[in-house]
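hi! just following up on the protien thing from before. the input was this:
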Amino acid sequence: MIIKTLKKINVDYIKILLSIIYGGWFIYIGIQHFLDPDWFKPIVPEIIGYPLFWVYISGIVEIILGILIIIPSSRRIASLGFIVFLIVVYWANINMWINDIEIGGNKLSQQGHVIRGIIQLILLVIVGWIGNLNRKF
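and the predicted 3d structure came back as:
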């Protein structure tokens, strides 16, 4: 019983810590969309146009979701939002890969793009775990 309680406490602390790190990182990246939008604009797919608009919109979404994932009462909805968001914005990463687009003065290798895709999957799993999406609503 005591060991089970200690494991629960440890999991709760890990979840709190991860939500702060995860949320803080996305808040930081979201802010960067406003401080240096030109860094993000090249990977916006040309077909949707208006790259500055999409950079700002994605920055706003990252900041809002980053804040919401830190707040325990909104973690579940933030997790769902992050999953949708990460899947949608991966289109920009695929665009970057297919069209060999430079970002921040660098081009990723094929291996770099694969690693980036794996990281994206890991981010999806982590945010699902943070939001307890393995449990019924």
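DSSP finds five helices and no strands in the chain.
The chain has one domain: 2-130.
cheers
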